[in-house]
UniProtKB/TrEMBL annotation, chain A:
Keywords from the named record: Coated pit, Endocytosis, Membrane, Protein transport, Transport
Annotated membrane topology: Peripheral membrane protein
UniProt similarity note: Belongs to the adaptor complexes large subunit family.
Cited SMART domains: Alpha_adaptinC2
Described function: Subunit of the adaptor protein complex 2 (AP-2). Adaptor protein complexes function in protein transport via transport vesicles in different membrane traffic pathways. Adaptor protein complexes are vesicle coat components and appear to be involved in cargo selection and vesicle formation. AP-2 is involved in clathrin-dependent endocytosis in which cargo proteins are incorporated into vesicles surrounded by clathrin (clathrin-coated vesicles, CCVs) which are destined for fusion with the early endosome. The complex binds polyphosphoinositides.
Source species, domain of life: Eukaryota
Region (Disordered): 698-727
Pfam families from the UniProt entry: Adaptin_N, Alpha_adaptinC2
Protein name: AP-2 complex subunit alpha
Cellular localization per UniProt: Membrane, Coated pit
From TrEMBL, chain B:
Record domain AP complex mu/sigma subunit: where: 1-145
Family: Belongs to the adaptor complexes small subunit family.
Pfam families: Clat_adaptor_s
A Gene Ontology term for the protein's cellular component: AP-3 adaptor complex
GO biological process annotation, one example: intracellular protein transport
InterPro entries linked: AP_complex_ssu, AP_mu_sigma_su, APS3, Clathrin_sm-chain_CS, Longin-like_dom_sf
Name used for this protein in its record: AP complex subunit sigma
Residue ranges that the Swiss-Prot or TrEMBL entry lists as coiled coil: none
CDD domains, per database record: AP3_sigma
Mode of membrane association: Peripheral membrane protein
Length: 935, 165
């Protein structure tokens, strides 16, 4: 080959090839590098040919993975060599060895520019290639106009122009300002009239980059793209060398369809019709043939056409046609097409209306889960995960579980996480959910994170119906000869809490339960021992009056661990031992765990976080979320249990046992549980403080402090409300004729909440309603905390929102009963549609014993919550102020009869009203303002 | 955009690497090793696509083709069509085939510099430059001609300068 013709390089390469091992190779490389280095030091003696040879050697060494930290200057200096071969190697090596921030590169800008504007086309090509590969911002600024000139020049050869197009694309990426939108959009459209397909391909890549940033400016290119597609699809004017396995330049077809996907819609009916004709032709005219390359090319075009059809939101008929095609693809022999078929079907899920058609292919997709190719198995898993909903969750999750045992390790973690998420999201009933998770732990315990088994415990704790079932299941798993440690944990926990529910079944006496759990103790790690100790304590508690034999056995274990080196184990052993000597009191102390307050599932959250937020995936996510709420309705319609389901099935993290808080990150919750485990839930007279403790961590503040009266006065004044009674009239708080008297002043509480975001809204001897709010622009997210202060349930709980016309409010389901001393959280979403002073009212009622209580409470979703303070200077403020012309935009009011306030106090007040105080406009006056967010 | 092109043999030795986003050499080597680790465990008659997110970060795809003793690997992002990339590998290989008449690994090893020239005519700064192997050949032949031509020219001035002194 004439091209290389460098003997020295060939010799070096064969030397390297002959090296027996890495060590020899390194020695040879070091020798060569030393040689090159000395030769470069004495640069004068080097001919350009030698330089070129050494630089190639450096590049070869670099590819082998050795750092070449010298000779960069020599490589760059070759660029300015007058002869082609040296210049060429200079350019090639520079673009391989250097990056765009390299200092030497700056030195070359002038030479590069001279090559670009010079007459020599081969030099132009070299320079463009280098800039296109590593050109940075500085190159963009100094070279963009020249490159543009080359691209649109009619005298340049296509060879140069196509490189100029891609070079410009690089420069545009480095600095978008170098392409002037106004001037360039017409040029771009003209470029699309190009006949040469090489130039057209490059120009299309440039267009894709430009429209992806700003499709508005390149609107005129849209019909031209459709024209190009028509030309290619009809195979008009396509030279032989651009026909690849009988298909007219698939790359250009693909790129053109890609460009079209960046335009939101196609408005012109004629263009749209022509495009759909072309697409229809592609969809119908593609068959799977024998030649692999032809298949790949034709399907490259076909899959891009599918993507475009999805983007254009075609009629349902065409969509179903696409799904049918995809259904065909996922069953063909060609693995690439199977792979893309599955991937595109996953994408198809976001198109409404076709999910049902996709579901028809479920069996085939499940088959793909057993494909020999892991890439295809992954796609199948993604698709199954995406298409899962309430209707097919059972089938899909069971299929995943079955597959889990044979799946390769690389996939097991993902698989078990997905199965757990689907089971939680779409569980048709909770016992099924428990089954799934226990199977999951059994089959892939290593991949089941703590989150997953915590969730099961939460569900079981909060659903009484489920408890005997879960305990029985846990007992069954313990009979297996070898079980995963996670299974030991979860079954020990469940049996500790609920094994007494099984007492009459065979093999379930406390003694037997203790025996079978204790068998596992020698095999478990220190993190599990504390859970087992708690279980023993619970078993003791449930067997009062105690069986002396069992008691002695357990006591022996406790005293054995009293000197354990692990603090957690030691502490539990000591405490349980001491507590269990207190006899009947143990029953109160180690009572069943109370229900967990509901929160978003950390598992679902993890799943959401894990999903990359690309448009298509978020669309899928959106769908999934909508379906979740359906699933919830299913689970919530269980009147027998008063479990508060709020929002999602979400609960909190679980403490690993009664007073084992060591693995709780949530300090507040830990405290809560700590308190609970020491308090007798049956205590006849709960003190108010106790409840405060209970609710404490949930951020409910006490009654408003001394500042309240001031604030109360301030509100009407600052809102400029001439008649404060207006607002009050809506919420006739005084109409209440309840025997139960509220604690504290309702109006005062409301006023205080107008200024802050959390606090108590209402309290009486039976219930406390707390509120916590977050405001963002026109959205508000409130949570109502309904806390039952009593030792018996509150029944017929009803909460109705009476929203004024300007607010859109949505309250999640409020459970009908609130269990004794439980707290229910009810999220409430608020959206402000337009400014108004009207106030939303919460109509709340419940029954306690014989008395029924009904209160109407104003909700602090008031005007000022939607304000957004902005800081302005005097220069900005006054022109704006003057440009406003009187009411309703401009109001000036002097308020009289207000108790004088300190300046600082007043500023604080304004701040809590979300108004910005701009100091220094007029001395001793305040100007407050803020734009109001509404949709 | 195409992020990288890797040609390596079935023992994992790189024969040609080109990264279109700058990457320090250690990182390049690590990636090459990891890609090889994935590829060598793949059976025949499976798809040409491999999940590459764990190796190259999110939004990356990997397409490869296995010819005799060589793997041709393209790494690119979601703005490219997978099958079109596979076609492009085919174009690269067909061009090499035309250039070397039944290309084999040795041709690639010893004509390292020519390989760079060919690749630069097909992929430019991570974008598809030319898809017609005939056009690529034309460009490459032109460059070869230039090289031989100037090689003869380099000889002439040398002799002349020798004659002058």
């Amino acid at each position: 080959m004439a091209l290389s013709g460098m003997r020295g390089l060939s010799v070096f390469i064969s030397d390297i090839r002959n090296c027996q091992n890495k060590e020899q190779e390194r020695l040879r490389v070091d020798k060569e590098l030393g040689n090159v280095r000395t030769r470069f030091k004495n640069e004068k003696g080097l001919t350009p040919y030698e330089k070129k040879k050494y630089v190639w050697k450096m590049l070869y060494i670099y590819m082998l993975g050795y750092d070449v930290d010298f000779g960069h200057m020599e490589a760059v200096s070759l660029i300015s060599a007058p002869k082609y071969p040296e210049k060429q190697v200079g350019y090639i090596v520079t673009s391989c060895l250097l990056n765009e921030n390299h200092d030497f590169l700056r030195l070359a800008i002038n030479t590069v520019r001279n090559d670009i504007i010079g007459r020599n086309e081969t030099f132009q090509c070299l320079a463009l290639t280098m800039v296109g590969n590593i050109g940075g911002r500085e190159f963009a600024e100094s070279l963009a106009p020249d490159v543009q000139k080359l691209l649109i020049s009619s005298s340049c050869r296509p060879l140069v122009r196509k490189k100029a197009a891609l070079c410009l694309l690089r420069l545009y990426r480095k600095n978008p300002d170098v392409v002037n939108v106004d001037g360039w959009s017409d040029r771009m459209a003209q470029l699309l009239d190009e006949r040469d397909l090489g130039v057209l391909t490059s120009s299309m890549s440039l267009l894709v980059a430009l429209v992806s940033n700003n499709h508005d400016a390149y609107w005129s290119c849209l019909p031209k793209c459709v024209k190009i597609l028509e030309r290619l699809a009809r195979n008009q004017d396509v030279p032989q060398e651009y026909t690849y396995y009988g298909i007219p330049t698939p790359w250009l077809q693909v790129k053109t369809m890609r460009a079209l996907q960046y335009f939101p819609t196609i408005e012109d009916p004629n263009t749209r019709r022509s495009l759909f004709e072309v697409l229809q032709r592609i969809l119908m005219g593609t068959d799977v043939v024998k030649n692999v390359n032809k298949n790949n090319a034709s399907h490259a075009v076909l899959f891009e056409a599918l993507a475009l059809v999805m983007h254009l939101d075609a009629e349902k008929e065409m969509m179903s046609q696409c799904v049918a095609l995809l259904g065909k693809f996922i069953a063909v022999r060609e693995p690439n097409i199977r792979y893309l078929g599955l991937e595109n079907m996953t994408r198809m899920l976001m198109v409404s209306d076709v999910q049902d058609i996709i579901k028809r292919h479920q069996a085939q997709i499940i088959t793909s889960l057993k494909d020999p190719d892991i890439s295809i198995r992954r796609r199948a898993l993604d698709l199954l995960y995406g298409m899962c909903d309430v209707s097919n969750a059972k089938d899909i999750v069971e299929e995943l579980l079955q597959y889990l045992s044979s799946a390769d390790f690389a996939m097991r973690e993902e698989l078990s996480l997905k199965a757990a998420i689907l089971a939680e999201k779409f569980a048709p009933d909770l016992s099924w959910y428990v089954d799934v998770i226990l199977q999951l732990i059994d089959k892939a315990g290593d991949f089941v994170s703590d989150d997953i088994w915590f969730r099961v415990v939460q569900f079981v704790t909060n659903n009484e119906d489920l408890q005997p079932y879960a305990a029985a299941k846990a007992r069954e798993y313990l009979d297996k000869p070898a079980i995963h440690e996670t299974m030991v944990k979860v079954s020990a926990y469940l049996l500790g809490e609920y094994s007494h529910l099984l007492a009459r079944r065979p093999g379930c006496s406390p003694k037997e339960i203790f025996g079978i759990i204790h068998e596992k103790l020698p095999t478990v790690s220190t993190s599990t021992v504390p859970i087992l100790l708690s279980t023993y304590a619970k078993i003791l508690m449930h067997t009062q009056p105690s069986d002396p034999e069992l008691q002695n056995q357990i006591w022996a274990i406790f005293s054995k661990y009293e000197s354990c080196i692990d603090v957690e184990i030691q502490q539990r052993a000591v405490e349980y031992f001491a507590l269990s000597r207190k006899g009947a009191a143990l029953m109160d102390i180690l009572a069943e765990m109370p229900k967990f307050p509901e929160r978003q599932s950390s598992l679902l959250k993890k799943a959401e976080d894990a999903e990359v937020d690309t448009a298509e995936q978020s669309a899928i996510k959106l769908r999934a979320q909508q379906q979740t709420s359906n699933a919830l309705v299913v689970t919530d319609q269980r009147p027998a249990n008063g479990t508060p389901h709020v929002g999602q099935l979400g609960l909190v993290m679980v403490p690993s046992s009664a007073n084992a808080d060591h693995n709780l990150e949530d300090q507040g919750l830990a405290q809560e549980n700590g308190t609970l485990s020491k308090v007798d839930p049956q205590s006849p007279s709960p003190s108010a403080d106790l409840l405060g403790d209970l609710l404490g961590p949930l951020a409910i503040e006490g009654p408003p402090g001394a500042a309240a009266p001031t604030e109360q006065h301030a509100i009407p004044a600052s809102e400029g409300d001439p008649n404060p009674a207006d607002a009050l009239a809506l919420a006739p708080v005084d109409e209440q004729t309840n025997s139960v008297q509220p604690i504290g002043n309702i109006a005062e509480r409301f006023n205080a909440l107008c200024l802050k975001d959390s606090g108590v809204l209402y309290e009486d001897p039976n219930i406390q309603i707390g509120i916590k709010a977050e405001w963002r622009a026109h959205h508000g997210r409130l949570v109502l905390f309904l806390g039952n202060k009593n030792t018996s349930s509150l029944a017929s709980v009803q909460a109705l929102i009476l929203p004024p016309s300007h607010l859109k409010m949505e309250l999640s389901l409020v459970p009908e009963t609130i269990p004794p001393r439980a707290q229910v959280q009810c999220p409430l979403e608020v959206m402000n549609l337009r400014p108004s002073r009207d106030v939303a009212v919460l109509d709340f009622s419940y029954k306690f014993g014989t008395s029924s209580v009904n209160v109407k409470l104003r909700l602090p979703a008031v005007l000022n919550k939607f304000l957004h303070p902005i800081a302005v200077t005097a220069e900005e403020f006054f022109p704006q102020w003057r440009s406003l012309s009187g009411p309703p935009l401009k109001l000036q009011e002097v308020v009289r009869g207000v108790r004088p306030m300190l300046l600082l106090e007043m500023a604080n007040l304004f701040n809590s009203l979300r108004l910005m105080v701009c100091p220094g406009l007029v001395s001793s006056y305040f100007f407050s303002h803020g734009p109001l967010s509404s949709t | 955009m195409i992020r990288a092109v890797i040609v390596m043999n079935t023992q994992g030795k790189p024969r040609l690497t080109k990264f279109y986003d700058y990457m320090p050499p250690e990182k390049q080597q690590e990636l090459i090793r990891r890609v090889f680790g994935v590829l060598c465990s793949r059976a025949e008659n499976v798809s040409n696509f491999v999940e590459a997110d764990s190796v190259f970060g999110p939004d990356t795809r990997l397409v490869y083709k296995h010819y005799a003793t060589l793997y041709f690997v393209f790494i690119f992002d979601s703005s490219e069509n997978e099958l079109a990339m596979l076609d492009l590998i085919q174009v690269l290989v067909e061009t090499l085939d035309k250039c070397f008449k039944n290309v084999c690994e040795l041709d690639i090893v010893f004509n390292y510099s020519k390989l760079h020239t060919i690749l630069d005519e097909i992929i430019f700064g991570g974008q598809v430059l030319e898809t017609s192997s005939a056009e690529v050949m034309k460009a490459v032949e032109e460059i070869s001609r230039l090289e031989t031509a100037s090689n003869t020219i380099t000889l002439v001035p040398k002799s002349i300068s020798g004659w002058r002194s």
